[in-house]
Every structure is written in C-alpha cells, then in structure tokens.
Amino acid sequence: MLADGYPAEALQAFLEAAASAPNDTQVLLRIATAQVRLRRFDDAEATMRRAVALEPKSPKVLQNLALVYLWRNDLERALETFQKVRALEETYPQTNYYIGLIHEARGEEEAAVRYYVMDVNNGPSPAWERLSRYKDNRRALGLAPSGPSSRSLLIFSLACLAVAGAAWALKLLFAVGVARTSTELES
Description:
Structural class: mainly alpha
Low-confidence stretches: none
CATH architecture of the largest domain: Alpha Horseshoe
CATH topology of the largest domain: Serine Threonine Protein Phosphatase 5, Tetratricopeptide repeat
Largest sheet: none
Number of strands: 0
CATH superfamily of the largest domain: Tetratricopeptide repeat domain
C-alpha cells in the first residue's frame, strides 16, 4: 500500500503489525516511512528513535533516522547521524551520497564532491549524476578546465621540442657521417 501511494492506509496496517511485534525494527522502519510520507516528521523521528534504542549498532536503522532529519531539513542532526553510520560501516550504501548532499546544500562543493566520489567508489550510486552535473556547472561558469591545463600543455610542448631537437641532431650527425664516408671513399 505504501508503494502504491496510500501512506495513511499503509501506516494503519503497519501500526497493527507493530501491535503484535512491538520490537520489530523492520516494522518500525515502515511505520516511520509512512509517517514521513504523511509529513508527520515528529512522529517519524520518535518511531526511528525507538528503533535506534532497539538496535543502536544497526547502520540501516541509524541511516533511516538520519533520513528523517534530512527530510525535516535538519542538516546538522542528519550529518551527525550519517557520520555515526559511517563509524559503524564506512561504505554503507548511499551514506556518503547523503553526506555529499548535505555539504552541497551548505555550499561546500569540494566536500560534496569528495563524498560523492567515495559513494561512487562503493558501487552503483546516484552520486554519478551529481558529479556530472557539478562538473558541467563548473565548466559553464568557467571555473573548471575543459581541456588540459596550461602547465600540462607547456610540458607536452617542451617534450615535443626535445624530441624534435633530438631527431634533428640525429639527422645532422647521420648527414655528416654519410658525407665523411663518401669523401673517404672518393680519396
């Protein structure tokens, strides 16, 4: 029912399920999700705090609490809670992505990119799109190079000149050697 867009009905069903299994964190997660969809953020936070009390070392439970904070736009508490998830499991799926979103919302682009890259390095991630958009935006503003840097071009040019100079020197030496050999043969 929740996936079909009926959060109120889903909430009622999950609350009934919780009556027979009050300590089932999976049911509590579903209750909190329905509460968030109904924009009942205080209730969702209370539900998730109860789940955290039952499983304080569960990255999944902590991440869901952090998501409630993120939906509330409480960036400080969300970031603090996502960092707790990372302390438990540094590569927990999408934790680094969400931390990147928080840094991006704060205008801390370098930190955002760093966390997006960490998330992408963990496997499939929505951070790919954020990284691509970030790179395109920086190019459009003229802040990101669209090609090699000036220093790279200078080093490449100097290397090409060195190779050309060496080739010219070899050609000259070969020409002088051929000329000497032909004069020695004539004499």
